[in-house]
Task: structure prediction
Amino acid sequence: MTTLVAPGTPTELRGAGLNSDTSRAIGAWRGDPDWVLDWRAQAWAAWETIPMPTPTTEGWRRTNLRILALDKVHAISDAVAHVTSRADLPASLQKAIDTGFDHGAVLVQENGTTILTEVDTQLAGTGVIVCDIHEAIHRYPELVRAHLGTLVPPRWQPGMPSNAGKFEALNAAFFNGGTFVYVPKNTTVSLPVRSLVYQSDADAAFFPRSLIIVDENARLTYLDEYTSVNTASPDAPPVFGSAVVEIIIKDGGRVDYTSIQEWSLSTAGFLTQRASLGNNASCNWVAVVLGGMYTRGTADVLLQGKGTRADMLGLAFGEGTQVFDFHTLQDHQSPFTDSDQLYKTAMRDRAHLIYEGLINIRTGSYGSNGYQANRNVLLSDTAKADSIPMLEISDNDVLCTHGSSVGPIDQMHVYYLLTRGLPRPVAERLVIQGFFEPVIERIAVDDLKDRVRAAVDRKIGEQG
Amino acid sequence: MVAAPATNAPIHQSSSDGATLAIRDLHVNIDSREIIHGIDLTVNKGEVHAILGPNGSGKSTLAYALMGHPRYAVTSGEVELKGEDLLAMSADERSRNGLFLCFQYPTSIPGIQMGNFLRLAMKARFGDAAIKTFRKELTEKLRILKMDESYMRRYLNEGFSGGEKKKAEILQMALLKPEIAIMDETDSGLDVDAFKVVADGVNAMRGPDVGFVVITHYNRMLEYIKPDFVHVLIGGKIVKSGGPELALAVDQHGYQPILEELREQGVEIELMEEAGATYAREEPTEREHDPFRSHGLTGL
Ligand SMILES: Nc1ncnc2c1ncn2[C@@H]1O[C@H](COP(=O)(O)OP(=O)(O)O)[C@@H](O)[C@H]1O
Ligand SMILES: [Mg+2]
Result:
């Protein structure tokens, strides 16, 4: 792979805070063309203009941003050396990517630097592009420029809450790292393309921005994974970052997208994912969230084309004092669009789940179906879940249902397993796995099912 | 306690010392209402005990209490399993120590695959070594019970017919090889074919290593699984014990003669509300109390 990273490391930037100078300096170091530099500048301006959400801001009522120490984080980390093969990766990353199934491509990024890129030669021969986002800006400028920021623009958008887009703007101002994928028309990528974003520098923020374009009648399976280290000491400010993923699915395209967030428990981060679907496009989206002391997860599907279909699945398991702050949108913008959401979570100890999901059926979206279900299990008396499903319907001839539930684990299920000799922790774990299984079952790719099961098992096996 | 009539079969009441399962003066409450009013019962390995009784007499309550169901509170009495205090054990310990209950209404648990569940249960009871022989054993038991391999990929009892659920219970019993197996109306709600398969499954397990407590509503089961002892449970008490001839008498004349006999002797029987309507020996209906169904979170 040709490296477009300037020689030397941004060592001189290290220690610099989140300000406009640093934003410009990162752009210069990355060798950004003018339009990207402008874009960063616009983003910085948006970050400064959009008011910081407070506990009285709609959509942020249950969110405590005081845990962030934005004045203390470094905007960028030292660049990390590239490796030539998997064998040279740190053991933890090797283990993470070696999960026993074949990939079409793998990109491993550490602290914003793409340190390993593997693309199946056959895949490359089909015109499919998988590379670092900065590399893509230089090598495929038109393609990137036409799409970057179209779904998650670095500015406030009319019609959105006044605070929306703040942390997305921060991402755009400092973006460093991220994956670019392009699948040409009529091309099927059957083996999963994987991106693993790892933050090993606890003092520096992470701002990856990925752009995935699936052209007409093309098909992609994508696995998007996020991990981070713990802070050196428990009372240090949390590892912080804001990640953005834009997924553009053109007419007739299909994406199977699975994201797995396994940040450290001392990480407070934002993960904003938005997909747009052209005519008759579809996506099967699974958001797995297991890590993070605070996670603001935004998952939006924009059903722009006629006859589109989006399955949105979510799964989260929390323990300790983890907070999950989920906001989802099923935005029906055209006739005959279907969306079906199922989010399931289990919270233990003092973990807290917030779910706000909106189905928006816009005028002109007749013949559409929107479904939404959020089911939460509380495993401790001190765990909490606030579930707010919302419907906004501006057309007739549509079918919408939504529902949510919060309750304890079914003790009768546990009892049955106990009577077969399973010790209580094993029985409870099995019941939780069973609770999540309907979500996992709906993942369209078998290898990804097992990957998600393994991640869940790792997490819920930690105790008991 | 009414003395059992003379019979050729040995009478079990003599001494409970050293017995596999020894129940002494057991009292059980549901929601602070006493349902079981003092039961004594001794079961040894190799024996088959039948418990007969009309609906609502407390048969399931006895079974649940023995299996450590959290809603069934033992207020007094003692139970020993192989000389150890059963009541001090958690439900899972009871199971691992060799007690098994075939539920009258087995719970369905979506999301848990039968095969995975059985493997974990075998591991819990017999340790890691059991995993090696698990597949072979499973295949053999499935054959005896005329169950298809595909059951293993299905969710635990989820969408199973009544007969399939009961077979799945017997399958678990056969794999876990209990020393005391309680079967709570395993025969009810089965069609003739399923009934035979279940009965054959039980007979295949019978032997010197396991003692059975077969709770049943009527005699059909006992024609297949010949009991050594028969007990009649009415109003939360065992009112009569005997040999197989007692089951025959109940089958022919119902519980009325026993009740009259007791009344003549001045023994008071507290009849449960439902009991009155169920003295006719008919299939229990689905509206019986089902502690699983009445509790629990739906919609998971
Ligand atoms: N879950 C329950 N909640 C309240 N009462 C119950 C429950 N289960 C059983 N009972 C009561 O306990 C008595 C005995 O019931 P049960 O043990 O189910 O009888 P059997 O199995 O002999 O038909 C009945 O009066 C019934 O109403
Ligand atoms: Mg019963």
Notes: The longest strand of chain B covers residues 33-43. The pocket of adenosine-5'-diphosphate (ligand 1) is lined by residues B 30-31, 35, 53, 55-61, 272-274, 289, 291, 294 (CB under 6 Å).
